[in-house]
Amino acid sequence: MMTGLRSNILTVTDLSIGFGPSDQEAIAITDRVNFALSEGEVLGLVGESGCGKSVTALAVLRLLPHPEGRVLNGQVLFRGQDVLSMSPNALRELRGNGISMIFQEPSSALNPLLSVRRQLYEVFEFHEHNMDPDVRVNELMGRVGFPDPERVLDAYPHQLSGGMLQRVMIAMALLLKPDLIIADEPTTALDVTVQAQIMELLVQLTREEGAAVLLITHNLGLIAQYATRLAVMYAGRIVESAMVEAFLKEPLHPYAKGLMAALPDLSRSMRERLLPIDGQVPRPQDYPSGCRFRPRCKQAFAPCENEPTLKPKAGGDLEHRVACFLHDPGASASEEAS
Ligand SMILES: Nc1ncnc2c1ncn2[C@@H]1O[C@H](COP(=O)(O)OP(=O)(O)O)[C@@H](O)[C@H]1O
Ligand SMILES: [Mg+2]
């Protein structure tokens, strides 16, 4: 295995996911998705609703719906271990100690019939650890901002607001000191003011605890503010990946520029370089051949009928990669010649 300077916690390679009664009859949702997270990093995965972000997260945890959800291709390595072939025991440890998940709807992740206390303590019963549960629960309940933890611990989920439930979920996700938290639209169901508090908390606590975060959202604004690196997904493919800072200075893919154009506080010079996107994401059964963004792209030209691959921009930063023929000098040269 190739080793970089920082060690990768999670490496997803060429991951294609589909739904259907068999591999042959499955409709492919994602197409050879690649990304990796190193220790303590916040990677943003962004794209419009329906592009395959959640199914990617579920596949990483082997939680795709049975029996129709299936991995058609690819590999998922967690600290070098092959997740897609893990035994049930190894998977149970992975889901508690290795990776934990925070969903958009905390109410769907919590059991309505059990008190918060019971649900937090159960985490310790089902997983290996060497912590004192009382100490750890109290510590985290304080750190997620409950000045009176006992009252919240005694409560049932329906007695708490969405913001409070998401604080409980953050505490629960961190209990066993996981290496990675996958947060799938963690604040989408919350009021805007509460959203910011929860994001601050999530990013600050995971940093203090040394956990990496895969932040999944349709909201590029959140990624601009909280992630260090991002991958932009469109119709099941990663179309651009970069350090957030480099991306914000110069987004390359027309789809990514369209997402940027929707951000509220851009400079005028930046806004003039961006074009909003018309139209809708196609359904997976209607994905076009070649570049999947082509039907919505105002700059599409003949080479876009072929499939672009993710490459560093010519002469640019090697970490800033884009799958677009506009940034592929070979493609435009052959276009001019023809
Ligand atoms: N259980 C399922 N059966 C069939 N198709 C599904 C199922 N779950 C999700 N999909 C399809 O997979 C695609 C991607 O969904 P999803 O990963 O939820 O998108 P995102 O999280 O980016 O909004 C969508 O077209 C959706 O209809
Ligand atoms: Mg989703």
Could you explain the architecture of this structure?
The protein has 338 residues and is an alpha/beta fold. It has helices spanning 53-60, 88-98, 106-109, 116-126, 133-143, 149-154, 162-174, 192-209, 220-226, 244-249, 254-261, 268-272, 329-337, and strands at residues 8-19, 27-28, 33-38, 42-46, 69-78, 81-82, 99-102, 180-184, 212-217, 229-234, 237-243, 311-312, 321-322. Strand 1 and strand 2 form a beta hairpin. The structure holds adenosine-5'-diphosphate and magnesium ion.
Concise synopsis of the structure shown:
By secondary structure, the chain is of the alpha/beta class. 35% of the residues lie in helices and 20% in strands.
SSE order and pairing:
Layout: E1 8-19, E2 27-28, E3 33-38, E4 42-46, H1 53-60, E5 69-78, E6 81-82, H2 88-98, E7 99-102, H3 106-109, H4 116-126, H5 133-143, H6 149-154, H7 162-174, E8 180-184, H8 192-209, E9 212-217, H9 220-226, E10 229-234, E11 237-243, H10 244-249, H11 254-261, H12 268-272, E12 311-312, E13 321-322, H13 329-337
Parallel strand pairs: 4-9, 4-10, 7-8, 8-9
Antiparallel strand pairs: 1-2, 1-3, 1-5, 5-6, 10-11, 11-13, 12-13
Helix pairs in contact: 5-7, 7-8
Bound molecules: adenosine-5'-diphosphate and magnesium ion.
